[in-house]
Amino acid sequence: GLNATVSTEVEFGVCTVTCGIGIREVLLTSGCPGTEAKCIVRVEECRGPVDCGWGIPISEGLACVKMPCIYIHPENRFKYIWKMLIPNKTAHILPNDSAVMEVCRDTHSVTFQCETQENENIIASVKYTVYATTEVETKKSRRIETGQSRRKTTDAILFFCLVTGIIVTVGVIFAMIFMILHWAVVKSIWESKSGQDNQDKKMANKRSL
Fold first, then answer.
1. pLDDT at position 166, please?
2. Is the pLDDT of residue 19 over 80?
3. Which of 29, 53, 61, 180 would you label with 162, given CA atoms 20 to 30 Å apart?
4. Other CB atoms within 10 Å distance of the CB of residue 57
5. Do 21 and 43 sit in the same domain of this protein?
């Protein structure tokens, strides 16, 4: 244990969330046992802004969607209010009061909101858009078309590289075969060129002299 008479200083760790409710560590920076510079004293709750914006469903299928509220364990400590948001109208409160709600897709998109409450105070709020089945199918087909287009482009590039490599390889092989079959001619040309170069050098030396 720590000596309670020792003057202590604490600092707070980073909150695990940027909105709603999370937890953080409380660190002791003086009076830790042994040679530790810092030690954890406790873990406590921390709060961020209430509005968490748009959330990501924990499960999203073609037919139904599962959406979670913002909470920390134990989840039964809080009260959850689910609402269906209707444009230009008052939000419709749903009978569901669980931390996770599952809804099936309709013929049109619907926006839901979950408010996490404690002692009648809202501590977190998150929204979800559940797209209609037709919209999901359209997005899925677009993703497939985009993937196919990218795959075609990649295949074309690979094919071009393969053909270019084959052409270069064949050219090198033919050049080597030509040199082997006509080595005498190539050697004579090389020797004549070397002789001409030497003669040019000698002439240049004479002129310099």
1. 87
2. yes
3. 180
4. 17
5. yes
Residue 125 φ/ψ, nearest 5 degrees: -145, 135
- 112 falls within a domain: yes
* Residue 198 pLDDT level (bands cut at 50, 70, 90): low
Inside any domain, residue 204? no
Integer Cα distance of 64 and 76 in angstroms: 25
* Among 44-48, 129-133, 148-152, the least confident range: 148-152
**Three-class DSSP category at 86:** coil
**CA–CA distance, 137 with 156 (Å, rounded to integer):** 28
Tokens 């989840």 belong to 75
46 bridge partner residues: 22
Answer yes or no: is 147 within a domain: no
End-to-end CA distance of the chain: 99
Q: Phi, psi at residue 39, to the nearest 5°?
A: -145, 150
Q: Which of 7, 74, 8, 78 is nearest to 42 (CA)?
A: 8
More confident of the two residues 32 and 52: 52
Measured between alpha carbons, how far is 69 from 167 in angstroms, rounded to an integer?
61
Say which residue, 157 or 196, is predicted with more confidence.
Answer: 157
